Automatic annotation (TrEMBL):
InterPro entries: QcrA_N, Rieske_2Fe-2S, Rieske_2Fe-2S_sf, Rieske_Fe-S_prot. This is Cytochrome bc1 complex Rieske iron-sulfur subunit. It is found in: Cell membrane. SUPFAM superfamilies: ISP domain. It is a multi-pass membrane protein. The keyword Transport applies. The chain crosses the membrane at residues 55-75, 95-114, 157-177. It comes from the Bacteria. PROSITE patterns: RIESKE. The keyword Signal does not apply.
Length: 361
């Protein structure tokens, strides 16, 4: 028997291999680009104008959707206990429809614009050697081509309605996030707002004991050994019924004990620790994640969200990561019974930096 069977598919030519070249031809010829089929708007100016008006109507619909959202949000009013169900249903309907049409109008409008007015020719671009000056010229040419193909210069109605829709569309989200703070109209909170004042003050105060979270056990200085780390809350939080979770979110503290000789204490903070026992806010100064990882050997505190790292020996100075400033320190001392207590509230706002807060504070 011969080593290669005669008459098989390999010999008969019934099987063609991709990429096989025979007499200068590939097994599968390149079919090339299909012939371009002009659209109605390409040949009829009236159809192009009609498409332009349709796209503009969609952008205007987006603008009306945003305005509808604000009507439901501001005109209908705040929802609270005792609000009639009909009012709640009306507001929810306006908020939902407004958001939907705001996003839908922009999305559908841009798709319709691309399908009916922007050029739809296909072409093959050969690779070329990239040079610095040529690259700049090519990039500039591409930008000009995009502007020309989108016809945004030639059709100011499209441009202006699109700018209006895009400018208004993010505003509902801004309003929603600004209203995450649920400050009520009680007199003791009326002067506070979502700005820096809401995070400047916590329920820590002079003489408030530090207790373990969640057991509520008071802590004596003698109970904290070098290397220990405890999650701490103010004792006044235990009996609180109103706004308890919000206050806890601002007041949580990490308590640790180091060798006093390893602490680098700045002027004015000499009495903020008790024989090496220090307390710092648990809220990361980047975006507010809980700082809960303590490396005993390096004396570093780590935020698990974005790896911001704080050096406990340098008053929780940022040594790595995106956080912009140190964790606020809670001044502590001991009372007559030897329990750890706060000397005062934090001397700076807790939490992350935002547009209304000085990042250097």
């Amino acid at each position: 028997m011969s080593e290669h069977r005669q008459g098989g598919p390999e010999d008969s030519g019934a099987v063609e291999r991709a990429g096989h070249v025979e007499q200068g031809k590939y097994a599968i010829d390149n079919p090339g680009l299909p012939p371009h089929r002009p659209r109605l708007a390409d040949e009829d100016p009236r159809a192009a104008k009609r498409a332009e008006r349709q796209v503009s109507v969609l952008f205007v619909l987006s603008i009306l959707g945003t305005l509808t959202f604000f009507i439901g949000y501001f005109v209908v009013g705040q929802i609270g206990p005792g609000t009639p169900f009909s009012t709640i249903r009306l507001q929810n309907t306006l908020l939902g429809l407004g958001t939907a049409f705001s996003m839908l109008g922009i999305g559908v409008g841009i798709v319709h614009w691309a399908k009916t007015l922007m050029p739809d020719h296909e072409w093959v671009e050969e690779r070329h050697e990239v040079r610095t000056e040529e690259d700049r010229q090519i990039a500039e040419g591409m930008i000009n081509d995009i502007l020309d193909e989108s016809q945004i210069k030639r059709r100011p109605l499209l441009r202006n309605t699109l700018i209006g829709a895009i400018a208004l569309a993010p505003l509902p989200a801004v309003a929603i996030f600004r209203d995450l703070d649920n400050t009520d109209n009680r007199s003791d909170l009326a002067e506070e707002n979502f700005g820096v004042e809401r995070l400047r003050h916590t329920i820590w105060d002079e003489g408030v004991r530090l207790v373990r979270d969640p057991s509520g056990t008071p802590i004596k200085a003698s109970d904290v050994a070098i290397g220990n780390a405890m999650h701490v809350i103010p004792e006044s939080l235990l009996g609180r019924t109103h706004d308890k979770l919000n206050q806890k979110a601002k007041s949580v503290v990490l308590l640790m004990r180091l060798n006093p000789e390893s602490l680098q204490i700045s002027e004015g903070r000499e009495d903020w620790n008790v024989d090496g026992i220090v307390a710092y806010s648990k809220i990361c100064t980047h975006v507010g994640c809980p700082v809960a990882l303590y490396e005993q050997h390096t004396h570093h505190l780590l935020c698990p969200c974005h790896q911001s790292t704080f050096d406990l020996t340098q008053e929780c100075k940022v040594i790595f990561g995106p956080a912009s400033h140190a964790l606020p320190q809670l001044p502590i001392t001991v009372d007559e019974e030897g329990f750890l207590v706060a000397q005062s509230d934090f001397h700076e706002p807790v939490g992350p930096v935002y547009w209304e807060r000085d990042p250097n504070r």
